[in-house]
Amino acid sequence: MLLYLYPGACSIADHIALIETGLPYKLIAIDRDKRTQDGRDYLTINPRGFVPSLQLEDGTILTENLAILAYIADRSSALLPEGELGRWRALEALSYMATTIHGGLTPFFKNKSDMEKDEARKALAKAFGFLDDQMGAQPFLLGQAMSIADPYLFWALLWTAQFGLPVPERLRAFFDRMNREPSVIRALAEEGLSPPKG
Ligand SMILES: N[C@@H](CCC(=O)N[C@@H](CS)C(=O)NCC(=O)O)C(=O)O
Q1: pLDDT digits over 132-191, tens only?
Q2: Burial, 40: exposed, middle or buried (Cβ in 10 Å; 0-12, 13-18, 19+)?
Q3: Do 2-78+185-190 and 86-181 have matching folds?
Q4: Spatial separation of the C-alpha atoms in residues 21 and 16, rounded to whole Å
Q5: Is the whole-model pTM more than 0.90?
Q6: Whose CA is nearest to atom 20 of ligand 1?
Q7: Is the minimum distance from the CB of 49 to ligand 1 under 6 angstroms?
Q8: Which residue has the CA at smallest separation from atom 14 of ligand 1?
Q9: Are 101 and 127 in contact (CB under 8 A)?
Q10: Is the peptide bond before 107 cis (omega within 30 degrees of 0)?
Q11: For a pocket test of ligand 1, which of 50, 101, 106, 109 has the largest count of ligand atoms closer than 8 A to its C-beta?
């Protein structure tokens, strides 16, 4: 499978998930002009222009973090909590990442007005508070093992310091733990990124 990404973008969640599951993958980086590293127009691959895109073995392109992460989990039977509701809890958490958390960060990425950023800051503080409560004393959001929601949350936390967004204590500890995970260390290195400062 081929994962199209920008270094440090939300596509790192899919990258970490691929490493965690052991599924074979190759990376193709996109530049800011939306050209692939092998010189193609990325819009011919994903007309919406967003990363990630995942190219499957038969050439089919899958887009959207939620779908790609769920697909990776489904293909590998990994990164899903056990139990009857495990996969639905993972989707529930993933949906929260893709909508409330990712959407909350968008005004900062797009450098929107101070008013929009203030509103987003308040909404994110509340959302991170919910996640902090959910994390509790567990190592990962949904329990003792990493699920597809955790790499997405890791990506969000990667950007909070840059945007001056406060992060509650248990989420900060989660971020530190994730930074020590071999899959995260490898993903950062493969994207040419330095490990975040603690
Ligand atoms: N709805 C998409 C959004 C993905 C997204 O926002 N990707 C950002 C990087 S984190 C992007 O490609 N931005 C490029 C742009 O805005 O032109 C998804 O969930 O996969």
Answers
A1: 999 999 999 999 999 999 999 999 999 998 999 999 999 999 999 999 999 999 999 999
A2: middle
A3: no
A4: 9
A5: yes
A6: 64
A7: yes
A8: 50
A9: yes
A10: no
A11: 50
Number of C-beta neighbours around residue 52 at 10 A: 24
Average pLDDT, the chain: 97
Q: How far apart are CA 156 and CA 152, in angstroms?
A: 6
Superfamily name with CATH number, domain 2-78+185-190: Glutaredoxin (3.40.30.10)
- Determine contact, residues 108/120, Cβ cutoff 8 Å: yes
Q: What ligand 1 atom has the least distance to the C-alpha of 48?
A: 17
Which protein residue's CA is at the shortest distance from atom 9 of ligand 1? 9
Q: Give distance in angstroms: CA of 83 to centre of ligand 1.
A: 32
Closest of 14, 15, 9 to residue 30, by C-alpha: 9
pLDDT digits (tens, 9 = 90+) for 103-115: 999 999 999 999 9
Residues of the chain with pLDDT > 70: what percent? Answer: 99
Position in ligand 1 atom list of the atom nearest CA 49: 17
Is ligand 1 within 6 A of the CB of residue 50?
yes
Question: Is CATH 1.20.1050.10 the right assignment for the domain spanning 86-181?
Answer: yes
For 15, the token pair is 């990258």
Domain boundaries, the chain: 2-78+185-190, 86-181
